[in-house]
Amino acid sequence: PDVCYKYLSEDIVSKFKEIKAETEDDDEDDYTEYKLTESIDNILVKMFKTNENNDKSELIKLEEVDDSLKLELMNYCSLLKDVDTTGTLDNYGMGNEMDIFNNLKRLLIYHSEENINTLKNKFRNAAVCLKNVDDWIVNKRGLVLPELNYDLEYFNEYLYNDKNSPEDKDNKGKGVVHVDTTLEKEDTLSYDNSDNMFCNKEYCNRLKDENNCISNLQVEDQGNCDTSWIFASKYHLETIRCMKGYEPTKISALYVANCYKGEHKDRCDEGSSPMEFLQIIEDYGFLPAESNYPYNYVKVGEQCPKVEDHWMNLWDNGKILHNKNEPNSLDGKGYTAYESERFHDNMDAFVKIIKTEVMNKGSVIAYIKAENVMGYEFSGKKVQNLCGDDTADHAVNIVGYGNYVNSEGEKKSYWIVRNSWGPYWGDEGYFKVDMYGPTHCHFNFIHSVVIFNVDLPMNNKTTKKESKIYDYYLKASPEFYHNLYFKNFNVGKKNLFSEKEDNENNKKLGNNYIIFGQDTAGSGQSGKESNTALESAGTSNEVSQRVHVYHILKHIMDGK
């Protein structure tokens, strides 16, 4: 009772009331989450009907939508708006029952092979409730290509390999770069890249190693704001820190956004480039943690904050290095970019550059064209075989790579790409794209890759040296070996070492299987390739379904 408050100080009473209010808000949020989960379950049941095989897996048609489903769809979007923090439903018009149904049906068609838990997560993307769903990505990009010129001294120094003749020097710079010229200069010893079980020359997916620093950097959502340049830049620096032995700590995107020198009112709408990110570091010499200054898209455009005493500086003792003037690259201070178009005649060189940087620095920044290519329904688990464009409007990160078998039975390679559109998009925020793309493409999907040239001291306090015993025995059992079992289990009693039969089997499997390469160096293993079903080849850790604990007892009367 309030009478008790008179025996307490005003500060204690104020704190108590604040805690009480927060607890009540948490209870309300939990209840909304509970009702949203219930609504999603109801919709998934109602959107399918029993087919002629007595299997309830056929989507209903628009004319079969009944009144109960219409009510549930509107209830679902109302609840989703209450919990959504990305600004989607605050900035764009919500659709009617038919719009929402069509958006959900389109999503389900594109993800027909997903399990039920994955589909439930995808239903939490607020884009499905929009009247004009294609508006969703309008303010979710934000890359402005920097104006840089090629160094003519290097540009005219055209390097060719056995496939090209000296006469090709007139190829206007699209010539072949010798694979080793841009790679051997990298000081690989300055990075902790000893995890060749999860990242080597053939296969790299550190997300599968739950103990790896990089796998603990959760996917983020830039919200309804053109800030992809910030999220791609900060993640690249975060993985560099991981490779230097630091703990996984997210950089404050809001600090960078609000210390950007553009007009305050335009910061959420105009976009910029990773060069601006480096300039902000250079000007302020400070990068706080996300926990110090959390991101919210509605706060983008506020004043650059005053650094508080308890804030952590993630750029402590860091230095931005001068440009390297690498052949066929665009350079600025701390910034090296490679345009795929310049490697048109030797994409293998472009691929090798990216692989080397990912192995050493954990990621690279990639420029892509997202408009009219990537939408809310984009599938992240299957490998996308896409063309690119002569320009780019969105910044993402390449974080790994692997091999797969396409529908023609050919072994191909893919990039693992991290986006900043939240965990309910793609494959928990990631997607795969073929390294080379269709043969008819004029441009590769990866328009450019960017690498930061920065000097961060190694953090030897947390760098762990692996025991020599792991040269012979596995520290963990990654998916490579897990899937090797399933490959041979599925092919039945065929001879394990029959290459001919394996090839025939791969052709039958088409694009249902993915190959994971294993480097032989330091692993003590044979380096054979293995196939795996797409369902077990997600780009992040095994889906740990988040089970929300709701105050069911408190609200049990609601269900009566």
Write a structural description:
The structure is a single chain. It contains twelve helices and 14 strands. The strands form three sheets. Strands 4, 5, 6, 7, 8, 9, 10, 11, 13 and 14 form a ten-stranded mixed β-sheet that branches. It has a two-stranded antiparallel sheet with strand order 1-2. Strands 3-12 form a two-stranded antiparallel sheet. The chain has 560 residues and is of the alpha+beta class. Among the domains are: 137 residues, no CATH class; 62 residues, no CATH class. A hairpin with a 2-residue loop joins strand 4 and strand 5. It is globular, with a radius of gyration of 26 Å. It is a peripheral membrane protein.
Topology of this structure?
Layout: H1 10-46, E1 48-50, E2 56-59, H2 67-83, H3 88-91, H4 97-110, H5 116-122, H6 152-155, H7 228-243, H8 253-259, H9 274-284, E3 319-320, E4 330-332, E5 335-339, H10 347-361, E6 364-368, E7 383-384, E8 394-405, E9 411-418, E10 430-434, E11 448-452, E12 454-455, H11 479-490, H12 499-509, E13 513-516, E14 530-533
Parallel strand pairs: 7-10
Antiparallel strand pairs: 1-2, 3-12, 4-5, 5-11, 6-8, 6-11, 8-9, 8-13, 9-10, 13-14
Helix pairs in contact: 1-2, 2-4
